[in-house]
Design a protein that fits this description.
This protein is an alpha+beta fold. It has helices at 2-31, 38-77, 99-116, 123-132, 143-156, 158-162, 220-224, 230-252, 282-287, 294-297, 306-313; strands at 83-84, 91-92, 139-140, 164-168, 173-178, 202-207, 210-219, 269-271, 301-305, 329-330, 340-341, 344-349, 361-366, 371-376, 381-385, 394-407, 413-417. Strands 8-17-13-9-12-11-10 form a seven-stranded mixed sheet, with helices on one face. Strands 3, 4, 7, 14, 15 and 16 form a six-stranded mixed sheet that branches. The chain has a two-stranded antiparallel ribbon with strand order 1-2. Helix 3 (99-116) packs across helix 4 (123-132). It is elongated and about 130 Å long.
């Protein structure tokens, strides 16, 4: 813009120079009380013409800047307003429209598709569904809708909340690992530097997102009820179903066409220090965090089922007498923050394996960032099944997603086992 203004100024100066020459020529003729000579007249006319041309160029450039300012002002007014695409005639949102605006259009699109199994007449909803259509006859869930599901999942699924989550469009990905404790030895001046053998230290864990799915059968009468908030029903139902699926797989999954769960990953274990196998002690809780290195401990947290959360809440130190000291469990007084046990956050899960025999895990402590979750980009997707349950006056809604997961560093975790 500075260069543009400089050009305008330069044109104005050139025009001013031409007019000044013409004025001096005319003043001379008036002062001498005579007429222009043929040469003087030609020079005068040339200076006027050249000055007018420079002025016209400057005026046009000034008008351009004014038009730009007016257009920008009008565009700012329409920034979050739906407009019509001149070429296609389809109503769409500009890229600068807010996420809330796009979310509202796509919520209508997804609700209409599930209710009636076709595109709506509203052009913006047609555009939303066309953009979201998948190759399987249904359509991919839009980003805002998927994020809303993900938010609900994070609120309910601790593994997803605490783990490292990676999205991929590939059929499988490799995650680099390093299984070696490097040591640095002192040496004398000019002595050879010791060389460590790190054979097989570097490796890769392969993650292949596996397909999971569910079908919800919905009565047609319910779909016809315009007062029914279908969008919230979808997000809530998906979240509740996938909560159970994901948390179970990430904790106890077998790794066969499924994620390898935390408890199935060969973690190092410590047995509880009690004669009563179903109990845990203060010593158990105090010692377990120090079974892993400080680099992982600083990001450490507990995970256990409800039964052992209840037992942990009753543990007291021996300050002032056996079992009469402070509680090791400290409740959270801040919304969204977990309670702590021995100073570390605690996650309670309903999807822990049954603790009934020696060797079963009662708790895990570790750096959960070393558990990696891999999900296929675009998961989940939704397909309406029109005919499958039509005989029962029902419509099937099929949800599918691809996920995988596993521990990438067993040194980052420690089990506490029943004994």
């Amino acid at each position: 813009m500075d260069d543009y203004n400089a050009q305008i100024h330069n044109l104005m100066e050139k025009a001013r120079g031409c007019y000044t020459k013409a004025q001096k020529s005319n003043d001379l003729v008036v002062e001498e009380k005579r007429a222009f000579t043929t040469e003087e007249r030609a020079n005068y006319d040339g200076w006027i013409k050249e000055g007018d041309e420079f002025k016209a160029q400057a005026d046009e450039m000034l008008q351009t800047t004014k038009r730009k300012s007016v257009l920008q002002s009008r565009m700012d007014e329409l920034k979050d307003t739906p407009i019509f695409d001149i070429e296609t005639g389809v109503r769409s949102f500009e890229k600068t429209a807010t996420k809330a605006d796009r979310m509202e259009v796509e919520k209508k699109a997804i609700s209409h598709y599930v209710r009636y199994g076709n595109f709506n007449d509203a052009p913006e909803e047609v555009k939303a569904l066309t953009r979201l259509s998948g190759p399987d006859g249904g359509f991919l869930v839009m980003e805002e809708f998927r994020n809303e599901i993900s938010v609900r999942l994070r609120d309910l699924v601790w593994m997803r909340q605490d783990a490292t989550v990676i999205q991929t469009s590939q059929a499988a990905i490799s995650y680099p690992t390093w299984d070696y404790d490097h040591t640095v030895a002192k040496r004398s001046d000019n002595a050879a530097v010791a060389v460590d053998d790190i054979t097989n230290a570097a490796g890769r864990d392969k993650f292949t997102p596996h397909s999971f799915g569910s079908i919800v059968k919905i009565p047609e009468e319910l779909l016809d009820d315009t007062g029914f908030d279908f969008f919230n029903f979808l997000t809530g139902d998906i979240a509740s179903r996938w909560t159970e699926l994901e948390e179970t797989q990430y904790i106890t999954g077998t790794g066969s066409q499924a994620p390898l769960g935390l408890l199935e990953s060969g973690l190092g274990a410590t047995d509880v220090e009690t004669a009563t196998s179903a109990e845990i002690t203060v010593n158990d809780i105090q010692k377990l965090p120090y079974k892993i290195t400080a680099v992982h401990r600083q990001n450490g947290r507990w995970m256990m089922n409800r039964t052992y959360v209840e037992k942990a809440m009753l543990l007291r130190t021996d300050d002032g007498g056996a079992g009469t000291g402070r509680f090791m469990w400290q409740p959270s007084f801040t919304a969204g923050q977990p309670a702590t046990l021995a100073g570390y956050p605690v996650r309670e899960t309903e999807f822990w394996e049954t603790v009934s025999a020696d060797g079963d895990a009662v708790a895990v402590f570790g750096n959960f960032k070393k558990y990696v979750i891999v999900e296929k980009t675009g998961s989940p997707s939704i397909v309406r099944l029109n005919e499958l349950y039509a005989g029962n006056n029902q419509v099937g809604i099929k949800f599918t997603a691809r996920i995988d997961g596993g521990v990438v560093s067993t040194d980052a975790f420690r089990r506490l086992n029943r004994t």
